[in-house]
Amino acid sequence: MLDRQTTHALRAEPQESYTDPALLEREQTHVFDRDWVMVTRAGALPNPGDYVTAKLGRRPIVVIRQEDGSIRAFANYCLHRYAKLLDGSGNKKRIVCPYHAWTYTMAGELMGVADREGFCALKTREMGLEELACEVALGFVFVSRRFDLPAPGARLGELAALLANHRIEDYEDRIVVDEEIWEGNWKALFENFIESYHVTYSHKGSIGPTNPTKLAEKGPTGHDFFSLHHNSYRPEDYPPIHNAALTADQRRQFHVIALYPNGLAAVDPNFMWWIALEPMAPGRTNARWGLSFSPHAMAGMEDPEAYVEAIRQTIVVATAEDKEMVGRVQEGAAFGSSERGYLHDWMEVYLAEFRQYIDGLCAAD
C-alpha cells in the first residue's frame, strides 16, 4: 500500500484543474493563443481548395490547401461584419461570406464586395483575411497566432528520429472525423490517452486483450515538446509486418505519443490513430480524430479496405470506452476536494511532464 506521507510520490493535479472556468480561460490565453496547436493531417486536405475549419482555442480558423500545394491558415471571419465564413470541411475555389457575399480567394485576398460603390473610401484590393502561422511536421498540420516560435519540425526533430523507420509523414489518411464531443476536460482526455495503466481495465472490448498493461514499456522522458512510450502487443497478437525497415522491437510496439500541447497519436506498424483536442468548456472537448495507414501495409495486404474497416471498428469501441472513463473523471472531480491523487511512478510520469509543460506556459507573462 502506498504511504500517503511519502514525499517523493508523483501527485495528480487538483480536482479543480478539470472544472475551473478561470483556469480554462488562462489556458486559452497562454496555451492556445501562444503555442503551436495541432489541427489535422495534411493528407486530410489532398486537393487545392480542400479546407477544414477548427478552433485555435476559442478562435475560429480555417486551414486550406493552396493551388501551389502549400497549406495556409486564416482567421475564419469576414472583414465586413465578422460573420464566420466557413463551416465543417469541404472544397472551395472561392470563399463567399454567407451574410453579404464578400468574396475571398483561397489565399485570403478580398476579391469582391457586393455593392462596391457604397465602400468608396476602402482600398479593398489591399485587404485580406488575417493569416496565421501554419506548418506541417510528421504529416500533421500545426497552426499558431505567433510567427516567432521555432517550427514544429525543429521542436519534434528527436521524435521524428525515433519514428524514422515508420515514416508516419507518408501514412495515408483514410478516415477523419472532425467532430467528436467528449463530456470531459481537455486535459483529462489528453492524460487518458498518454498512459497505458488503464488499458487492461478500461479497454476490455477493444485493445485491452491484445495490448495488456503488463506489457507496457517505458519510453524516453524529459523531452520538451513530446512524450513517447510503448504499449506492446502480446506475442500471439503481433501484427503482420509489411514495412521491412522496422526493427524487431518496432514490430511489436504500439507507440503512444503526446504532441504538446493538444496532439495525440498511437502508432502501430500498420496504422496510426491521431487526435487533435479543442477545449470548448471546462467539462467539454471536441476531439478531431483520424486513422492513417502505412502505404507498405496498404500495398501488402490482400484486402486493405477490410483491414481499414476492422481498425475503424476497434477504435470506435476504444473511443466509447475512453469516453466513459473521461466522463467519470469529470464527474468525480466535480466534488472539488483539495486532496490530490497519486500517479504511477512511470506509467503516469508522462502526465506530470505534460502538466509541467502546460503550467510553464500558463505561468509566463
Automatic annotation (TrEMBL):
<dbReference type="InterPro" id="IPR017941">
    <property type="entry name" value="Rieske_2Fe-2S"/>
</dbReference>
<dbReference type="GO" id="GO:0005506">
    <property type="term" value="F:iron ion binding"/>
</dbReference>
<protein>
    <submittedName>
        <fullName>Aromatic ring-hydroxylating dioxygenase subunit alpha</fullName>
    </submittedName>
</protein>
<dbReference type="Pfam" id="PF00355">
    <property type="entry name" value="Rieske"/>
</dbReference>
<feature type="compositionally biased region" description="Basic and acidic residues">
    <location>
        <begin position="1"/>
        <end position="14"/>
    </location>
</feature>
<keyword id="KW-0001">2Fe-2S</keyword>
<dbReference type="GO" id="GO:0051213">
    <property type="term" value="F:dioxygenase activity"/>
</dbReference>
<dbReference type="InterPro" id="IPR036922">
    <property type="entry name" value="Rieske_2Fe-2S_sf"/>
</dbReference>
<keyword id="KW-0223">Dioxygenase</keyword>
<dbReference type="GO" id="GO:0051537">
    <property type="term" value="F:2 iron, 2 sulfur cluster binding"/>
</dbReference>
<keyword id="KW-0479">Metal-binding</keyword>
<dbReference type="Pfam" id="PF00848">
    <property type="entry name" value="Ring_hydroxyl_A"/>
</dbReference>
<keyword id="KW-0560">Oxidoreductase</keyword>
<dbReference type="InterPro" id="IPR001663">
    <property type="entry name" value="Rng_hydr_dOase-A"/>
</dbReference>
<feature type="domain" description="Rieske">
    <location>
        <begin position="36"/>
        <end position="143"/>
    </location>
</feature>
<keyword id="KW-0411">Iron-sulfur</keyword>
<feature type="region of interest" description="Disordered">
    <location>
        <begin position="1"/>
        <end position="20"/>
    </location>
</feature>
<keyword id="KW-0408">Iron</keyword>
<dbReference type="InterPro" id="IPR015879">
    <property type="entry name" value="Ring_hydroxy_dOase_asu_C_dom"/>
</dbReference>
